[in-house]
């Protein structure tokens, strides 16, 4: 290693509690032996999270020896919610106009979305993909859609994954995308999908081809994958 390496672990509060505890324990173990290696001391870890009580308590030991920066996120949460509310109202209005929804049906959807306690931009983006694909114009149909809407981000991801025609294929593509250091091209995903323990050279690969795979990915992965400019 020639310089400092920074690892950013964002939104710890979005993890399940057992996973939070597992990660924090791993960080404690890492920092407990950090002083024994100069290489390890150049490996910096930044963790971001909402300052929830349980998370703060789990970090008690680490905070004694680590730098802690608290931002006034709680003061901004209400203003962020108001921004998201404006986005919800705007999107529902466009959705109603494009799909010729009655005012009563559109208002019903809007009220349901505004009632969600933990509204975030990521939650709204994931939810909107589900709504667009399952939209109905009747009040009874809208009630059914609303009853099935996920409450949080994790539920939204789970719902999207369940709607994938090929969940195992979609999971593999997601694993490839998530570990990548940058957005991958369709050609790179094609290669990654076909590499296995028997591959010894590029010539061994039997690829789908970029054009064909670009057409296939949205169909096989459902709403989990978006391709922008062949990436």
Description:
The chain is mostly helical. The chain is built from 12 helices and 2 strands. A two-stranded parallel ribbon has the order 1-2. Helix 5 runs antiparallel to helix 6, helix 6 packs parallel to helix 8 and helix 7 runs parallel beside helix 9. The chain is flat, with a radius of gyration of 22 Å. The model has no long low-confidence stretch (mean pLDDT 80).
Topology overview:
Elements: E1 5-9, H1 17-32, H2 38-41, E2 43-47, H3 53-58, H4 60-63, H5 73-99, H6 103-115, H7 121-134, H8 139-148, H9 153-162, H10 167-179, H11 186-194, H12 210-221
Parallel strand pairs: 1-2
Mean pLDDT: 80
Number of strands: 2
Output the radius of gyration: 22 Å
The general outline is flat
What is the tally of helical segments? 12
With strands numbered from the N-terminus, the spatial order across the biggest sheet is 1-2
H/E series, N to C? EHHEHHHHHHHHHH
State the secondary-structure class: mainly alpha
Helix content: 55-70%
Contiguous low-pLDDT stretches (5 residues minimum) are none
Straight-line distance between termini: 30 Å
**Main sheet specs:** 2 strands, parallel
Strand content: under 5%
């Amino acid at each position: 290693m020639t310089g400092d390496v920074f690892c950013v672990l964002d939104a710890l509060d979005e993890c399940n509690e057992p996973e939070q505890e597992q990660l924090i324990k791993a960080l404690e173990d890492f920092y407990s032996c950090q002083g024994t290696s100069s290489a390890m001391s150049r490996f910096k870890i930044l963790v971001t999270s909402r300052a929830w009580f349980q998370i703060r308590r789990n970090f008690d030991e680490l905070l004694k020896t680590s730098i802690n920066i608290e931002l006034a996120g709680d003061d901004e949460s209400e203003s962020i919610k108001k921004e998201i509310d404006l986005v919800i109202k705007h999107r529902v209005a466009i959705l109603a106009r494009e799909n010729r929804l009655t005012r009563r049906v559109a208002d019903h959807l809007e009220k349901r979305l505004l009632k969600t306690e933990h509204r975030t931009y990521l939650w709204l983006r994931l939810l909107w993909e589900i709504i667009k694909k399952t939209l109905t114009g009747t009040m009874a149909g809208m009630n059914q859609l609303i009853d099935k809407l996920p409450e949080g981000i994790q539920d939204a991801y789970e719902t999207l994954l369940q709607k994938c025609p090929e969940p195992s294929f979609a999971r593999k593509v997601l694993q490839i995308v998530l570990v990548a250091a940058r957005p991958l091209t369709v050609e790179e995903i094609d290669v990654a999908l076909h590499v296995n323990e028997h591959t010894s050279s590029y010539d061994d690969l039997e690829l789908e081809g970029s054009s064909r795979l670009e057409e296939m990915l949205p169909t096989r992965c459902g709403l989990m994958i978006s391709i922008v400019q062949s990436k």
